[in-house]
Amino acid sequence: MLSVVANRRDLKDSTPVQGWASLSRRQSMNELQDLIDNNARWADAIKQEDPEFFAKLARQQTPEFLWIGCSDARVPANEIVGMLPGDLFVHRNVANVVLHTDLNCLSVIQYAVDVLKVKHILVTGHYGCGGVRASMQDRQFGLIDGWLRTIRDLYYENREVLAKLPTEEERVDRLCELNVIQQVANVGHTSIVQNAWHRGQSLSVHGCIYGIKDGRWKSLDVTISGFEQLPPQYRLRPQD
């Protein structure tokens, strides 16, 4: 009897929660429906321009570019450079960081280089990056503090140069550029990229930056295309 009463009490107590969950699901579905409707309009527009577009896209993926960019929602990779789905292989994380301990990023680079045979890796930052700005502050933000540590180190290494800039925004933007330059070097230091060069594969790593205020994407004139551009300490011999 006690068991039955307890079960009934649990059922009674859970009813408001179930009702709230049901309402929450309906609200979520309504929000998702807007995205589903947007997708339908987008797909229809693409098919009107090229009825075979999705059929061709499903058969193969042959991008020539790998984009390594920031997770910021205001920096949509394909749209910025006017490319369609299938033209750009994309990896994004907070502050477009390339760490040699990040298996996610390294796996993307390896697949792009070894399987897709991309010819260009575009490391793209953006001005006003929140991750870069956070790395310049003395506040704690949680788990992400560890992720941003290398940018904080970069800030420390360039503190005297950055201190000469008159405004905080200029200092943040310059560190955004320096961060891109460092990540280009990090990509070039990977065994993945260097093994591609050993094989004679055409592959260049470029540093670029995007301006959210004006929508312009530009090169920072930083490109690595071979061993001769790497410091000797970072050059790796071919595997035996």
From TrEMBL:
Highest rank taxon of the organism: Bacteria
GO molecular function, one term: carbonate dehydratase activity
Pfam families, A to Z: Pro_CA (PF00484)
Membrane spanning residue stretches: none
Signal peptide positions (record): none
Keywords associated with the record: Lyase, Metal-binding, Zinc
Gene3D superfamilies: Carbonic anhydrase
InterPro entries to which the protein is assigned, alphabetical: Carbonic_anhydrase, Carbonic_anhydrase_CS, Carbonic_anhydrase_sf
The reaction(s) this protein catalyses: hydrogencarbonate + H(+) = CO2 + H2O
Binding-site residues, Zn(2+): C70, D72, H126, C129
EC number in record: 4.2.1.1
Cofactors required: Zn(2+)
Cofactor info, note text: Binds 1 zinc ion per subunit.
A Gene Ontology BP annotation from the UniProt entry: carbon utilization
UniProt-listed PANTHER family: CARBONIC ANHYDRASE
Annotated function: Reversible hydration of carbon dioxide.
Protein name: Carbonic anhydrase
